[in-house]
Design brief:
Blueprint lengths: L15 H9 L19 H14 L3 E2 L1 H18 L6 H20 L6 H5 E2 L6
Parallel strand pairs: 1-2
Helix pairs in contact: 2-3, 2-4
Length: 126
C-alpha cells in the first residue's frame, strides 16, 4: 500500500466497534487509513424501500401485508439482536428466501395468474 499510495485506494467497511478493533490489531494500521467515515444505520422505513427496490429489480412486488410483516419482523430483530442484525443484508436474505417460498407455494396452486407470479405475499416472507 505504501509503495503505491498515489495509485491505490483501499476501502474497508464494517461495523464501528469491529473496525476499531481491527485497526488496533497492528500499531501501524490505523495510520494507513487516515480518513474514516461513519454512516447512520438505515431506518425501518428505508429498509422497506430497499426491500421494494430489491423485489422490483427481480421483477417482483410486495403486497401491502408483506410490507407490514417485513416491517414488524425487522423491528423485532432490532429489538432483540440490535441494529447490526436488521440491515440491508438481512433484507436481501429475506427477499431471496421469500422468492423461494413463493415458488414452492405456487407449485401447489392451480390457475396461477401473472399477478400471482410477481407478487410476494405475507405468507412468502419470513
Amino acid at each position: 500500500m505504501e509503495d503505491e499510495k498515489d495509485n491505490l485506494i483501499v476501502i474497508l467497511a464494517g461495523y464501528p466497534k469491529e473496525m476499531d478493533y481491527f485497526l488496533q490489531t497492528n500499531p501501524g494500521l490505523k495510520s494507513r487509513f487516515p480518513i474514516q467515515a461513519e454512516f447512520e444505520d438505515y431506518s425501518l422505513e428505508e429498509l422497506i424501500k430497499i426491500a421494494k427496490l430489491m423485489a422490483q429489480e427481480r421483477e417482483y412486488s410486495l403486497s401491502s401485508s408483506a410490507k407490514a410483516k417485513l416491517y414488524q419482523h425487522l423491528a423485532e430483530i432490532r429489538r432483540n439482536a440490535g441494529v447490526e442484525e436488521g440491515n440491508a443484508r438481512t433484507v436481501r436474505n429475506l427477499i431471496e428466501r421469500g422468492i423461494r417460498k413463493q415458488a414452492l407455494r405456487l407449485v401447489e396452486q392451480k390457475g396461477i395468474t401473472k399477478e400471482d407470479l410477481i407478487t410476494l405475499t405475507r405468507d412468502d416472507l419470513i
